[in-house]
Amino acid sequence: MSATNRAGFEDIQEIHSRLFNHRPFLQGEVKHFLREFEEKRGDREVENIFSCLERVSELRDLGLPQLTTSTNSNTSTSLVANLQVAESMLGRILEHSETDEVEKTLVASRDTREREWTNFLQEVQIRCKKVDQSFKEQEDAIRKKYQDLESGS
Predict the structure, then answer these.
(1) 76, 70 in Cβ contact below 8 A?
(2) CA gap 95, 139 in Å, rounded
(3) 21 and which of 17, 25, 30, 39 could share a cystine (Cβ 3.0–4.6 Å)?
(4) pLDDT tens profile 39-80
(5) Span 14-26, mean pLDDT?
(6) What single-letter DSSP state applies at residue 62?
(7) Taking the complete model, does pTM exceed 0.85, yes or no?
(8) For residues 14 and 36, what is the distance between their CA atoms, to the nearest angstrom?
């Protein structure tokens, strides 16, 4: 009986490993993907490197001498002067816009303070009227009380 139990146990282990152990399958898939990726990408990378090499050699052989001759001419000095003028104009524009923003902020806060002050004064006047009315009512009540006391005695 132990031999049959052992054979049954080994069969269960085999079934379990086939169902739940996916490592051999995944390893094969990963190797296949890497092989495909390297083959397709390898050619593109080599082509990109050669095109970059061609551009660099063209710039070294043709572009650099042209650039040096053009920078030594008078157009470069006028270009620099124009750039400096443009920079100073932009600086003035930025400064003007900053002062406008500050001025707008100051005006807005001034208006807000004026509104708050007006509201405060109105509230103070309303409270003063209420206090005056309360005093008048109390004064009238006290007068009436003393008149009743004088007439009753």
Answers:
(1) yes
(2) 65
(3) 17
(4) 766 667 777 778 888 888 887 787 777 777 776 666 667 777
(5) 73
(6) I
(7) no
(8) 32
- CA 25 to chain CA mean position, Å: 46
Q: Distance between CA 54 and CA 62 in Å, rounded?
A: 12
Element (H, E) at 41: helix 23-58
Whole-number Å distance between alpha carbons of 75 and 125: 75
- For 7-15, what is the mean pLDDT? 78
Q: Where are the alpha helices (DSSP H) in the chain?
A: 2-20, 23-58, 64-71, 74-152
Q: Are 88 and 94 in contact (CB under 8 A)?
A: no
Task: Please give the structure tokens belonging to residue 146.
Answer: 């003393």
Q: Coil, helix or strand for 106?
A: helix
CB count in 10 Å sphere of residue 79: 13
The encoded tokens of residue 140 equal 């009238």
Q: Residue length, the chain?
A: 153
Structure tokens given for 142: 């006290």
Instruction: Determine the Cα–Cα distance for residues 25 and 33; give it in Å rounded to an integer.
Output: 12
